[in-house]
Write a structure and sequence with these properties.
The chain is mostly helical. It is built from 21 helices and no strands. The chain is globular.
């Protein structure tokens, strides 16, 4: 049943891609079939619905639909693009640095990327640049900074390693994760053509159009979103619903048109696959592959393979809520079994770096935000959604693979502890 569940996942993606059916619908249908084959209750399907992720995506997408409908986001993007009109190749770097600094300062990855990904895609549309490049740089910056000792992931790592009696290891882990993350960002910058970005001739001159009264109110709402989410760490989904309500109450946004701009096809795709993954996880398919990876570890490959295991697990579950609490406590036992000169800090860097960069996956908050935002920026078909899903998953796979390479070539060993 473990193997069958993994086959069902592959089949769902393949059928959706070949037949041009929303993969979310296919996943819901095959998830139902899988519950019958495994003798599970349909309650497993219901329990697998990503309520938190759905509300986060719906709230942020609806709020930004209001700003998109009255051209606030477009005009703001034009003005920002005007600043970089002579050096557009710097934009991905700036997005990465800003996301990293904001995340490391305390809010963590989810809060920062919820804001920065939408900005990045909007800027890319105005620059006629690759939106995936700018959005991925926003996510990488956010997840790179979240390992800071005062950010969410760093706090979790500190708490989990305290029981292992290794005080003070969180800081070197932060340095190692930063190094691995920066390595991936540099590779992606060149691989996705960041250095080749050129400004369209029509965008060469600064934008002089003034904001209307309604757009100024929306800008205040946008600023309030950043402050409430980044500084006060409030839930981005519900904050978005609240601010959208205020904007409509003040007459700064249309009450009907923005609903049509919400990318419902993408929401169905993401939620459908998440439901299927809940069944597959319950059937043991995820554990089967994770155990297989862990069984191949040697002294030379331990850090790389534990990174691969963490990245793989993070594709289908929460890094902070599942991967770290599951893997980190087992590291001393794994090290004892492998033997040799395997260091705990190397293993920790591999786990945290791989599990966080896996967030580019469309099954995670970061990747789903990219899909939803790109679908909102322009209408895309079910076929294009499936292609975008596969592209983001491939980028996530490459990011995890780069962490594995970073560990195998000794990158983690440059960090002393």
């Amino acid at each position: 049943m473990q193997a069958i569940s993994l086959f069902v996942l592959i089949a769902a993606i393949a059928i959706g891609f070949v037949k041009k059916i929303n993969v979310g619908i296919v996943s819901l249908a095959l998830g139902f079939v899988l519950t019958i084959l495994t003798g599970m209750s349909v309650k497993v399907l219901v329990a697998g619905f990503p309520t938190k992720l759905f509300l986060t995506l719906l709230g942020t997408m609806y709020f930004f639909a209001l700003l998109q409908d009255n051209k606030t986001l477009e005009l703001l993007s034009q003005k920002i693009v005007g600043i970089f009109r002579t050096k557009p190749f710097l934009m991905p770097i700036v997005i990465y640095v800003v996301s990293y600094v904001m995340s490391a300062a305390g809010p963590g990855a989810i809060s920062v990327q919820s804001v920065m990904v939408i900005f990045a895609v909007s800027l890319a549309v105005q620059m006629h640049a690759n939106p995936i490049l700018l959005a991925v740089m926003a996510i990488l910056g956010a997840v790179g900074g979240t390992a800071s000792p005062i950010a969410l992931t760093g706090i979790i790592v500190t708490d989990l390693t305290a029981s292992l009696q290794v005080p003070g290891i969180a800081v070197p882990v932060f340095y190692g994760v930063t190094a691995a993350n920066l390595f991936i960002a540099i590779v992606f910058y060149f691989a996705l053509g960041g250095y080749r970005i050129r400004m369209d001739a029509s965008l060469a001159a600064p934008e002089n159009t003034a904001f209307t009264k309604e757009q100024k109110i929306c800008l205040i709402g946008l600023l309030a979103l950043v402050i409430m989410v980044v500084l006060f760490r409030m839930d981005v989904g519900f904050v978005s619903f609240f601010l959208a309500f205020i904007l409509m109450l003040l007459g700064a946004a249309d009450k009907k048109r923005p609903v049509k701009l919400v990318p419902w096809n993408v929401l169905i795709l993401i939620c459908g696959i998440s439901v299927l993954m809940g069944v597959i996880k319950k059937a043991g398919g995820i554990k089967l592959l994770a155990d297989f990876l862990a069984s191949m570890m040697t002294e030379g490959t331990a850090a790389g393979l534990i990174a691969a295991t963490a990245g793989f697990m993070s594709w289908f579950s929460s890094a902070n809520g599942v991967v770290f609490p599951t893997l980190i406590p087992t590291l001393p036992e794994i090290i004892a079994k492998v033997g040799g000169n395997v260091r705990l800090v190397d293993m920790l860097i591999g786990v945290v770096a791989a599990a966080t960069v896996a967030g580019i996956s469309p099954l995670s908050t970061g990747g789903s935000l990219i899909m939803a935002t790109m679908a909102q920026a322009r209408e895309i078909s079910a076929e294009e959604s499936s292609k975008l899903f596969l592209k983001l998953f491939l980028l996530s796979f490459c990011a995890v693979a780069l962490v594995v390479v970073f560990a195998l070539i000794g990158g983690t060993q440059l960090i002393s502890y």
